[in-house]
Amino acid sequence: MIEELIKKIGKNLRDQNLTLSTAESCTGGYISHNITNTEGSSDFFEGGFVTYSKASKIRDLRIDLEILEHQGIYSRETAEAMADAVRRIFGTSIGLSTTGIAPPGDKQATEKTGKLVIGISSKKGINSKEIFLQAETRQDFKEKATKEALILLKKEIEK
Question: Which pTM was predicted?
Answer without folding.
Answer: 0.95
